[in-house]
Amino acid sequence: MARKTIRTIPQQRAFMAVQDPEVRAGNFEEVAHGFKLDDALVECERCLVCPQPACVAGCPVGIDIPGFIVKMIDKDFRGAYDIITDTNFLPAICGRVCPQEDQCEGVCPVGATLEPVAIGRLERWVGDRAIAEGWRKESHIEPNRFRIGIIGSGPAGMACAADLAKAGCSVTVYEALHEPGGVLRYGIPDFRLPNTVVDAEIGNLIRLGIEIKCNTLIGRLFTVEEMLEEMGYDAVFIGTGAGSPRFMNIPGENLNGVLSANELLTRCNLMKAGRQPDYATPLRIGRRVAVIGAGNTAMDAMRVSKRLEAEEVMCVYRRTEAESPARREEIHHAIEEGIDFRWLTAPVEILGDDDGRVRAMRCVRMELGEADESGRRRPQPVEGSEYEIETDMVVYAIGTTANPILGQTSKIRLDKRGYIETDEETLATSLTGVYAGGDIVTGAATVILAMGAGRKAAMSIKRYLGIRDSEAVYRPPREGLEGTLFGIDEAERNFVRLRLA
Amino acid sequence: MMTGRHDAHDAEAPAEVPASARQHTDLTALGFPIRARSDFSDATFLLEVDHPVMARAARPGQFVIIMINDHGERIPLTIADFDRDKGTITLVVQAVGASTREMQRVCRPGASLYAMVGPMGVPSHVGGAGKVICVGGGLGVAPIFPQARAFKEAGAHVIGVIGFRTRDLIFWEDKFRSVCDELIICTDDGSAGRKGLVTGGIEEAIDKHGVIDEVVAIGPPVMMRACAELTRPHGIKTTVSLNPIMVDGTGMCGGCRVMVGGHIRFACVDGPDFDAHEVDFDDLMARLRRYRAEEREALEHWAEDCRRLTMQPSLAHDAGRD
């Protein structure tokens, strides 16, 4: 086959159906339907299969992206799935929620002149196909004697658990809530990531032999130190997430009708609130909802409110769209669904009625001044520009601070802001044998960065325990010598714990 | 060693998993079995739930979150007692809303809770204070007990003040007598002990002893506020245990935020114990009302469901009741 060039590939991204904005704003079905097979194959043709792929380097977990796309072109979808799951156990999730525009797709050379290859959508297609077909990774695991305890069943913990289970460790994941998945479960709403997808991907992890124990609050039921000293864990990974919602300390914050995005999303996603009487958890959605903040969590909170039948939903953000930390796609979806964006607006006070319920929010207009340390222009209030917005529900989505429980209950060293201090290279904490990664180390970030941290910690744990470090994975035997070095499979980098079936 | 009669009884019920085997299995997979129940009144009942690991970890002042089933609410309940030998957690529940009434209906020995997580919250600080008044009113009577016991074990002179509406609702009097040096029982109608509110009992104790080192009060917010106002002029260190509306109980949702000393605190991870003189009780009480309409609606719906169940007894979990 002649080498593809930017001129010979399909110039437009392949078609992917999305739900009509007006319809979807009233339901919790997924917004994006995903590629159909033919469209996926067209999109695969857009990949130039670069010899030194920038996308792989741009991926926090280093998925062999051209590798899986080539498999797809060959219609070897199972093979594509195996390549992705060599490095990423949750393709259906990551294909949906990764900020690909800043990662793989952001560095794709096709993107220099055309729209980049829709890597995320292709990954999702493979992940969905795997769920539909019931594929699972055939890992041939030879158990070793090591026991690993993992705190938190979100993306960081699960990624770490998967790698260690594949290396033969016996892994137990502890989760404080009654269902596993962490932010994938309580945070990201169904229209972005259906719970059925989370269930399916977690099911794959359980089949690897990982044990998940819910309803277990580490630190209080037993401590990290007890896990190592009394319960016989050889190493512990902490992936508890950042978690504690931030408020602004303005008057009226405790009025009824003011809540954190975390509370709104947890009630709606985890507890299925607002669907009384089938589910017992209450949730009162306002008629006019004002969400403060413009990150991905704010977008989720607004779009959830819309779906729970708020008549009007506003986004109040003190900077402009250009500075907002949300994914472009999310902002775009929110605008399509009729969210009213009030850029350069900051709340100064929340006003209540006689019943102690929110009736309005006093805001001030902002203008952008000099750039601050984050490189974004610093917003400053315009004097005398205060005005009231009528609202009966205010949602705070202005970020989180570190969850205090592990700091309260163990001697682990925290940084100034209360996050767990780790060695950057190894993610080792101040306690021997204890590693940490994800939001509890970095502060709020993304699912894929947390997964990357989980995998990095898994590598360090293997090194710490003396399990020979290897990224090698079981792959089905292939024909001929293609992809081998002197006939030796390149993937076979001394992975002693694997035994070919 | 069990008696022969008990052994025979066990043998007759082969469907029951033996308690010994149950302790070693994964509780999460099976739910959390209810070992015993006793009803103190038509609204208040006690459950003992199996959870050996939690029974070992629990300290006075901590709480759990339970779910009846997978559609249920996450309900925070203060731990009323824990038995490390039996491996059980004791909860005392007041059936006031739809979820707690449903608990009252379905939670019987042999049944299991869908979820129980804990012990949550920072344990109470139990110093070796000289003279301590432990105040419990309403749903706070049970959770004040482990605190009174802990103070007794720490060598304090413990004065218990517990309040009930009427004589028939009194429970655990013997338990309190066993850990309190003095016990003042108050009833609203005067049918037993002192007539009036617990604040009267506290005043009586302060008058009698002159110097009191600490007061710990658990009960409805109105009662805790009254206690705080009573002790403030005396300058007595006073601790209250707050039970605001929560969802996760792990510091994640911020629903349980309370104002303490002008700052936002999360009752689930910073509390539930706070300095009573710093707590903004008006704020707490206003925030407790925020789902009142929904709660009322849920209760009506629940009552309607129950009526329907009694009309079709075959559907009822327990047709004999009501």
Quick take:
The complex is a heterodimer of chains A (501) and B (322). With 501 residues, chain A is an alpha/beta fold. Chain A is built from 18 helices and 20 strands.
Structural class of chain B: alpha/beta
Order of helices and strands of chain B: HHHEEHEEEHEEEHEHEEHEHEEEHEHH
Head-to-tail CA distance between termini of chain A: 34 Å
Into which percent range does the helicity of residues of chain B fall? 25-40%
Mean pLDDT of chain A: 85
Oligomerization state: heterodimer
- Termini Cα gap of chain B: 38 Å
Task: Report what the structure shows.
The complex is a heterodimer of chains A (501) and B (322). Chain A is an alpha/beta fold and 501 residues long. Chain A has 18 helices and 20 strands. Chain A has helices spanning 21-24, 37-44, 54-58, 65-73, 77-87, 91-97, 104-107, 119-133, 155-166, 183-186, 195-207, 224-229, 261-270, 296-307, 328-336, 405-409, 439-442, 447-465; strands at residues 17-18, 32-34, 147-151, 170-174, 211-213, 235-238, 243-245, 258-260, 288-292, 312-316, 340-342, 345-352, 358-371, 377-381, 387-390, 393-396, 400-402, 434-436, 484-485, 488-489. In chain A, the strands form 6 sheets. Chain A has a 5-stranded parallel sheet. In chain A, strands 8-16-9-10-11 form a 5-stranded parallel sheet. In chain A, helix 4 packs antiparallel against helix 5, helix 6 runs antiparallel to helix 8 (119-133) and helix 9 packs parallel to helix 18 (447-465). The longest helix of chain A has 19 residues, at 447-465. Mean pLDDT of chain A is 85; it is low at 473-477 and 492-499. With 322 residues, chain B is α/β, with parallel strands linked by helices. Chain B has 12 helices and 16 strands. Chain B has helices spanning 4-11, 19-24, 27-30, 52-57, 98-106, 141-153, 173-179, 198-209, 221-231, 267-270, 281-288, 292-311, and strands spanning 32-39, 44-50, 63-67, 75-83, 88-94, 112-113, 115-120, 131-137, 157-164, 182-187, 194-195, 214-218, 237-241, 257-260, 263-266, 273-275. In chain B, strands 6-1-2-5-4-3-7 form a 7-stranded antiparallel sheet. Chain B has a 7-stranded mixed sheet with strand order 11-10-9-8-12-13-16, with helices on both faces. In chain B, strand 8, helix 6 and strand 9 form a beta-alpha-beta unit. The longest helix of chain B is centred in the last third of the chain and has 20 residues, at 292-311. Chain B is globular and about 60 Å long. The model of chain B is unreliable at 1-29 and 315-322 (pLDDT under 50). Chains A and B meet through strand 7 and helix 13 of A and helix 4, strand 7, helix 11 and helix 12 of B.
